[in-house]
Specification:
With 407 residues, the chain is of the alpha/beta class. The chain is 38% helix and 19% strand. The protein has 2 domains: 135 residues, Rossmann fold (3-Layer(aba) Sandwich), CATH 3.40.50; 249 residues, no CATH class. A hairpin with a 4-residue loop joins strand 6 and strand 7.
């Protein structure tokens, strides 16, 4: 059974009939098309006629005859036969050159509500995007969150103890289709094929100068080290030494940009806690899905908190936070989570299994005079909150049983 992704629908519903183009973005296979199908089902349930819903997927061979914005315009125009409102759904619209002109024309000419999806973060940037300035609202769709994954398994009557499942989720992430497979080899094969597909269709195809093999090897290395302080120079030196072929730091930055634009990675900038300001430099990067990190990791060392950090980072984004790493005078805080000009500070640990670990994680806040709430998140089931610092269980936080408070 399909999971109804209620958190995204809550964001979309107020815009169903608003005169803005709804742009649903995100990495391939994250569930954008299924989400659009759910929106269509809701419109039908509210009495919208099926003849007034126009749905075209540019990756469907049935629409291979559409190769230009004129072809698309003519197809849509032929289906509009009256002055009542039409709901137009266009999947992977970025495949059409100058698609912004098409959307601007449809919006100006017809009584319609437009929904589009795309897997490229630059689809609404550039010169043509000026045509749509102020006319769009964007929603990024992630693979299943931990809570959605648990809900999906329960919906399909697959046994799931969240405290046990967290290790599976750390390793294999939440791409919806990966739950179709039970064997780890099959899951890994699916993820590897998915990643190759993203690289070939969204990156190499658009940049013929990119070496496919080098890009895949370097990008997987970047992802497997997501959350660690980024150094293009170190990555270039590592790759050159291992492969006996040179690659420049500039090339690494080019590859990083491609990963970002394809929604494979998200950047995390620093926040100067003392100065209470965000810094321009993106110091760390996190994978959109931890399953992609696993592709270049032979074994998962669960006490390596970078995997857990990655999951918490994604969850914070899904919950609508703007997220930074926190720069202190002598060190850093894992995350500064900001929403509506309020914030909190977060440290992430696997288990607080020793006095040394407890002191390190709670002590990270020692020099911070800012009164905003401070949290340590770990997998421990014993509440170790003290000195005004709250300790939360990661599984409970991911299941939304625990909420962050901001000030």
């Amino acid at each position: 059974m399909q999971l109804i992704r209620e958190d995204y629908l809550k964001l979309l519903r107020p815009y169903y009939d608003v005169d803005l183009i709804k742009v649903i973005t995100g990495i391939r296979r994250s569930g954008k098309s299924v989400l659009m199908e759910t929106v269509k089902d809701e419109l039908l349930s509210k009495g919208v006629s099926g003849s007034h819903i126009i749905s075209i997927n540019l990756e469907d061979l049935d629409y291979s005859f559409i190769t230009s914005i004129k072809d698309m315009h003519d197809e849509i125009k032929s289906r509009i036969v009256d002055d009542q409102k039409y709901y137009i759904f266009l999947d992977e619209i970025q495949h059409l050159e100058k698609f912004e002109k098409l959307l601007a024309s449809l919006k100006a000419k017809f009584n319609c509500s437009i929904f589009v999806t795309g897997s490229d973060s630059t689809m609404l940037s550039g010169e043509l995007a000026t045509l749509l300035t102020g006319r769009t609202v964007e929603f990024e769709v992630f693979p299943f969150s931990f809570k959605e994954s648990v809900d999906y398994l329960e919906l399909n009557k697959i046994p799931c103890n969240p405290d046990d499942f967290i290790k599976d989720y750390i390793k294999w992430g939440g791409f919806p289709l990966r739950f179709s497979f039970r064997e780890e080899n099959s899951i890994k094969r699916f993820l590897d094929n998915l990643y190759s597909n993203i690289v070939n269709r969204d990156i190499v195809k658009k940049s013929s100068k990119i070496d496919r093999k080098a890009f895949k090897n370097i990008s997987l290395y970047i992802m497997s080290n997501a959350g660690k302080e980024f150094s293009a120079e170190n990555i270039a030196a590592y790759y050159s030494a291992k492969n006996k072929s040179s690659v420049s730091a500039r090339t690494i930055y080019t590859y990083l940009d491609k990963l970002h634009k394809s929604y494979i990675l998200h950047s995390c900038k620093k926040f100067n806690i003392a100065g209470k300001t965000a810094l321009e430099k993106a110091d760390k990067f996190y994978a959109t899905d931890t399953g992609l990190r696993t592709l270049n990791t032979n074994t998962i060392y669960y006490e390596d908190t970078f995997f857990l950090e990655n999951i918490i980072y994604n969850e914070l984004l899904i919950q609508g936070f703007t997220v930074f790493t926190g720069k202190t005078f002598k060190g850093e805080i894992d995350f500064v989570a900001v929403k509506e000009q309020k914030k909190c500070f977060i440290q992430v640990a696997y288990l607080l299994s020793s006095e040394e670990t407890i002191k390190r994680e709670f002590g990270a806040f020692e020099k911070i005079t800012d009164a905003s709430p401070k949290y340590v998140l770990s997998l421990d089931r014993i509440d170790l909150s003290h000195d005004g610092i709250e300790h939360l269980n990661i599984v409970d936080f991911l299941l939304h049983k625990e909420q962050l408070h901001l000030s």
